[in-house]
Amino acid sequence: QVQLVESGGGLVQAGDSLRLSCAASGRTLSNYAMGWFRQAPGKEREFVAVISWSGDSTYYADSGKGRFTISRDNAKNTVYLQMNSLKPEDTAVYYCAASGGYYGSTWNGYDYWGQGTQVTVSS
C-alpha cells in the first residue's frame, strides 16, 4: 500500500504561481511512476502531468505545457507540481497518483490516489 498526501493548494490570483507537493508513505516512491490529475466541479478528472520512475521522463497535457513542471525527489519520497502563470481555468482539485507499471495519461492506469488539494485561481 502507498499513502499519498497532497499539499500546497490555495487561493491565488491569475498569473500567480503555486507548488503542489505529494508526500508518499508506505512504499519507496521510486517504484512508481507518478501523475497529477485535476477535477473541476461538474467535469471529469483530467490528466495534468506524469513523471517516470527515475524522473528522466515527463509528459504533460497541452493545458499545462510551458507553465507546469513535474518533478520528484525519491530520497524525500515526494513529487512536486510547479504551476506558473495560473489561469482561472486551472481551478480544480488536484490529485497525485502512483502507478507501479503504467506510465501515461489514463486515470485508471494508476493504483493509488491521494485525497486532493484545492487550487482556486481568481481573475
Report on this structure:
This protein is mainly β and 123 residues long. It is built from no helices and eleven strands. Strands 2, 4, 5, 6, 9, 10 and 11 form a seven-stranded mixed beta sheet that branches. A four-stranded antiparallel beta sheet has the order 1-3-8-7, with no helix packed on it. The protein is globular, with a radius of gyration of 13 Å. The mean pLDDT is 96.
Task: Label this structure with key terms.
mainly beta; 11 strands; 123 residues; four-stranded antiparallel β-sheet; 0% helix
Low-confidence segments, given as residue ranges, are none
N-to-C span: 40 Å
Identify the overall geometry.
globular
Please report the number of helical segments: 0
Q: Output the radius of gyration.
A: 13 Å
Mean pLDDT: 96
Number of strands: 11
Strand coverage percent: over 45%
Along the chain, the helix and strand elements come as EEEEEEEEEEE
Secondary structure category: mainly beta
Specify the biggest β-sheet.
7 strands, mixed
Estimate the helix proportion, in percent.
Answer: under 10%
